[in-house]
Design a protein that fits this description.
By secondary structure, this protein is mainly alpha-helical. The protein folds into 2 domains: 90 residues, no CATH class; 80 residues, no CATH class. Helices cover 62% and strands 2% of the residues. It is built from 9 helices and 2 strands; from the N terminus they run αααββαααααα. Strands 1-2 form a two-stranded antiparallel sheet. A hairpin with a 6-residue loop joins strand 1 and strand 2. Helix 2 runs antiparallel to helix 3 and helix 5 runs antiparallel to helix 9.
Length: 180
Amino acid sequence: MKLGNAYYCSVQNLLSSSLLSKNLKIKIYITIILPVVLYGYETWSLTFREECRLSVFENRVLRRVFGPKRDEVTGEWRKLHNEELRYLYSLPNIVRLVKSRRMRWAGHVALMGEGSGVHVVLVGKPERKRPLGSPRRRLQGNVKTDFQELGGGCGDWLELAQDRERWRALVSTVMNFRVP
């Protein structure tokens, strides 16, 4: 996240420039800033707080890209509301992007089989004693909740991932599904 902020600060003059089109500014965001922010996202186990931080970061960048809006009633300039940003930015938000790509990666890992080391890391259970406090979020739990949240139903995601075509269809519908 820190490097994403650094890249954002380095290009914020471009993002607020009136000489560049909004489409070009969005391409700058997608090609320069977003890959830095999402480095290693497949293995993240996002908490609600981290999801909020990612959304706040994306809204800050999009407010810079789209600029202020003139209020019709008072004639004063104001910041764009989150709903207006979602309407203007037609691509899926950053949290949706992380969840769908994480599901796509989990499908690849599920197809690798139980013998691969990555599959053991994704699905395996730790053998040591659990420390005090609430259990840490595990990647498999995140994929399972993403699967249920995004319309997978109550079935097992590992079984569905074995059917490549159905899994690919599920992940593509997740990407194209517009949810706030």
